[in-house]
């Protein structure tokens, strides 16, 4: 794993290759499949996440905004406590069917643990909700790998998918709220 040191003058140094690198060089390493660690030279603190966020920021500037600004505004409004929700939303984007199934199971398990549903009721709901006859995707669709690249996903498609994710999150929250209110 390449270790990149960031100096106080903001220069980035690849300690494995013994050369200075740019943010674009780090982005290229990641695109090639490398796991990269970025540390502050003076403190030794891991600043990988901040550096990757900076790379995304620079790419956003160049592309004219691939991601909708409301997504960033929502992330800022929600603060650090909702970062988990952002991560879940992103993974839901990558495999929405799997995410929805896992979320249904997680929430039904929670309702059983809370005594709101019996195990039998939960099993019945899982059977109804996850029945292959009711799933809007074919097995072929499910088996396909989703590849994220500029050639495959256009900006409008990405915005539409992000809006659908938000819509699904709201629906799941409403379901969760209605089960809570039913007690």
For this entry, give a set of tags.
183 residues, alpha+beta, single chain, elongated, 4 strands
Q: What would your notes on this structure say?
A:
The protein is an alpha+beta fold. It folds into 2 domains: 3-64, no CATH class; 71-181, no CATH class. It is built from 8 helices and 4 strands, in the order E-E-E-H-E-H-H-H-H-H-H-H. The protein has helices at residues 23-31, 48-63, 69-78, 83-94, 96-113, 119-129, 139-143, 155-181; strands at 3-6, 12-14, 19-21, 37-40. It has a 4-stranded mixed β-sheet. It is elongated.
What's the short version?
The chain is 59% helix and 8% strand. The protein has 183 residues and is an alpha+beta fold.
